[in-house]
């Protein structure tokens, strides 16, 4: 869904989306469990994040699901000639200089739209050991929207999404449920094991992150 629904999507973004879809299909990726069809607003919490190609394959998968993914970006990337392209691709500008923090800014976007599927790479960087940042959870709570989990298995070239999960406010317990869902998909992935240990540490009071 474009940031501004009254403006036509530009030619460049249409070309880029087409290229992404061609790459996704050419590489043989497929969706094994689809996105929910009964809700229009949610946070997509994805892991693992190991490659710059992750965005391409997730974008291809969401296209197959007829969903326009959204992402957060530094507001300076939405200036000049890049502005319309970034908005067309689903970008949401985040201004770190504003009084409202990133969570509040994104929550306001959810409130102003009829549809918004925000993709967040919860590990933060490709070099992560598997621990998650809590921003995805804080955004979902602030916007009062569910979380949909997403995994990508490079070995089988499959992408899958979970049923919607409503945050309970108990981050540690919810994170453990999240970790268990991911481990049910790729049990031996080290990053998922680290995530499960992180959740247990939070529950036990050994870690508050």
Description:
With 209 residues, the protein is an alpha/beta fold. It has one domain. The chain is 40% helix and 18% strand. It has seven helices and seven strands. It has helices spanning 11-26, 54-64, 82-88, 102-112, 135-143, 171-185, 190-203, and strands spanning 30-33, 41-47, 69-74, 91-94, 116-121, 147-153, 158-161. The chain has a seven-stranded mixed β-sheet with strand order 1-7-6-2-5-3-4, with helices on both faces. A hairpin with a 4-residue loop joins strand 6 and strand 7. The protein starts with 10 loop residues before the first helix and ends in a 6-residue tail after the last helix.
Question: What's the short story on this structure?
Answer:
This protein is α/β, with parallel strands linked by helices. The chain is built from seven helices and seven strands.
């Amino acid at each position: 869904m474009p940031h501004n629904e009254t403006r036509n999507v530009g030619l460049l973004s249409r070309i880029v989306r087409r290229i992404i879809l061609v790459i996704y299909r050419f590489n043989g990726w497929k969706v094994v469990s689809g996105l929910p069809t009964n809700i229009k607003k949610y946070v997509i919490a994805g892991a693992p994040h190991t490659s710059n190609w992750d965005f391409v394959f997730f974008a291809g998968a969401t296209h197959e699901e007829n969903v326009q993914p959204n992402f957060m970006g530094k507001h300076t990337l939405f200036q000049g000639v890049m502005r319309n392209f970034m908005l067309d691709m689903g970008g949401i500008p985040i201004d770190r200089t504003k009084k409202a923090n990133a969570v509040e800014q994104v929550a306001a976007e959810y409130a102003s739209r009829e549809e918004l599927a925000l993709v967040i790479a919860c590990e933060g960087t490709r070099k992560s050991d598997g621990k998650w940042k809590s921003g995805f959870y804080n955004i979902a709570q602030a916007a009062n929207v569910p979380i949909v989990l997403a995994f990508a298995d490079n070995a089988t070239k499959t992408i899958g999404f979970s049923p919607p999960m409503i945050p309970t406010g108990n981050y540690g317990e919810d994170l453990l449920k999240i970790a268990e869902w991911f481990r049910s998909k790729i049990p031996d992935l080290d990053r998922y094991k680290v995530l499960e240990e992180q959740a247990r540490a939070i529950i036990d009071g050994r870690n508050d992150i």
